[in-house]
Design goal:
The chain contains 18 helices and ten strands. By secondary structure, it is mainly α. It has three domains: 145 residues, Orthogonal Bundle (Fumarase C, Chain B, domain 1), CATH 1.10.275.10; 194 residues, Fumarase/aspartase (Central domain) (Fumarase C, Chain A, domain 2); 55 residues, Orthogonal Bundle (Ribonucleotide Reductase Protein R1, domain 1), CATH 1.10.40.30. The strands form five sheets. The chain has a two-stranded antiparallel ribbon with strand order 1-2. A two-stranded antiparallel sheet has the order 3-4.
Length: 477
């Protein structure tokens, strides 16, 4: 027995691993593109399979599946369609993920990935109908049946949109959970007074809870931006086939496909008003990627703040303490590093790089098609995948366990000469600057200097230098 079978395409015959569900065009892609060893994310595999599932149902309803006679057996068009639908559902469920070996760096537009999907579903459908893989003549054909009324050029951009929507709820959930954890810390830390800092220099007082409340608000607003950006992804150009004209697709195919995909996925979807534009322009996925980048830069900023606030502990700010998750040094005993926030930074930098790739791919479209979609899809799905994982770890292994170092925070505040700012309405900016300069030079408290100079009475100084009142804003009197 051999460990391969012979399959053929328009270029000739090829040896295919005996048990592989894919066929000749996938094998050519394996041989042509041994680039990275990477594989497409499940989001892409699932999205392409759900399109094939929907198309089989729509084309069956439109009466486009003809009966076939194979070796004296008549296989009805209904049987063909139902076998394709069942095989597609198996792919959607992840049963055949190992049958998608094509490298993300492949021929333009994603023809190799589309044909990989067509071949796997066709061969699995043939098995369902009782035909062995090595039978030369099988009823379900990857192009004629699985790819009916489709082109790579409309299925792949549709798959990019559906794949992002497939994980959108999971992404928003991870963001919401992080926001919730930050909000809880904001409430917990609200009584703790500390020195504000601008330009990394001392500024007027703030409460630690106010600082964390701002982090929570920023995260919440990023979730809103992502939901808004995802609205454009709901507009599908499936049915445009090769260039947007819909050649070889039934006139009702586009509208029926959008409705069927909405039914199968549970997503709110809409028809494209211009199938040519949906083929040419990748602006919707570029816009969504940009919202992911905006989230990444905000997460980076917050992670950097936490690293700074936890710095030290003996020679830094040390206003918060992060949970210890691992020893921090191979040479310095007792050293604990902010390992999780460092990981988060690296992930977010990678996401920003993903976004740059998506943006460059988006502008590289030419005339009726953008051929850069395979790597665009890989980067879109990767940025979602690693962001979801990183945010979950960030929440559970950092934010949930954060502890405020109240004595240190309030100790720094006590030394802060910028408290004199609250006296501006009473003594003026110039006298305030003189007081601050003397306090810094002598190490004395603002209260002591301002009373000694006769600018304020002790009672006035105590009232105006109430740090908690300062954090509530307004003019103190």
């Amino acid at each position: 027995m051999t460990d391969y079978r012979i399959e053929k395409d328009s270029l000739g015959e090829l040896q295919i691993p005996c048990e592989a569900l894919y066929a000749a065009q996938t094998q050519r892609a394996i041989e042509n593109f041994p680039i990275s060893g990477l594989r497409q994310y499940r989001a892409f595999i699932w999205a392409m399979a759900v399109i094939k599932r929907a198309a089989a149902g729509v084309n069956l309803d439109l009466g486009l599946f003809a009966d076939r006679e194979i070796g004296g057996r008549v296989v009805s068009g209904t049987e063909l369609a139902h076998a394709i639908m069942r095989a597609s559902e198996e792919v959607m469920g992840g049963r055949w993920d190992d049958q998608f070996p094509v490298d993300p760096f492949q021929a333009g537009a994603g023809t190799s990935h589309n044909m990989n999907t067509n071949e796997v579903i066709a061969n699995r459908a043939n098995q369902i109908l009782g035909f062995a893989l090595d039978v030369p003549d099988k009823p379900v054909h990857p192009n004629d049946h699985v790819n009916m009324a489709q082109s790579t050029n409309d299925t792949v951009p549709t798959a990019l949109r559906l794949g992002c929507l497939w994980r959108l709820d999971e992404l928003i959930e991870a963001i919401d959970e992080l926001e919730g954890s930050l909000s809880r810390k904001a409430r917990e830390f609200d009584p703790i007074l500390k020195s504000g800092r601008t330009h990394l220099q001392d500024a007027v007082p703030i409460r630690l809870g106010q600082e964390f409340g701002a982090y929570a608000c920023a995260i919440e607003r990023n979730a809103d931006k992502l939901v808004e950006a995802a609205r454009g992804l709901r507009r599908l150009g499936i049915g445009g086939t090769a260039v947007g004209s819909g050649l070889n697709a039934h006139p009702e195919y586009h509208s029926r496909m959008v409705a069927r995909l909405e039914e199968l996925t549970g997503f709110e979807l809409e028809m494209s008003a211009n199938l040519f534009e949906s083929m040419q322009s990748m602006q919707d996925v570029v816009h969504f990627s940009g919202a992911m980048r905006t989230l990444a830069q905000d997460i980076t900023r917050i992670a950097n703040d936490l690293r700074l606030l936890a710095s030290g502990p003996a020679t830094g700010l040390a206003e918060i303490v992060m949970p210890a998750v691992q020893p921090g040094s191979s040479i310095m005993p007792g050293k604990i590093n902010p390992s999780i926030t460092e990981m988060v930074n690296q992930v977010m930098f990678h996401v920003m790089g993903n976004d740059l790739t998506v943006m460059l791919c988006g502008q590289a479209g030419q005339l009726e098609l953008n051929v850069m979609m395979p790597v665009m899809g890989y980067n879109l799905f990767q940025m979602m995948d690693i962001t979801i994982s990183a945010l979950k770890v960030f929440k559970t292994r950092v934010i949930d366990g954060l502890v405020a170092n109240q004595s240190v925070a309030e100790g720094w505040l006590a030394k802060n000469a910028i408290l004199v700012t609250a006296l501006n309405p009473k003594i003026g900016y110039q006298k305030g600057a003189e007081v601050a300069k003397e306090a810094l030079a002598t190490g004395r408290a603002i209260r002591e200097v301002v009373i000694e100079r006769g600018y304020l009475s002790a009672e006035e100084a105590d009232r105006l230098l109430d740090a908690h009142r300062m954090t509530n804003g307004g003019i103190l009197d």
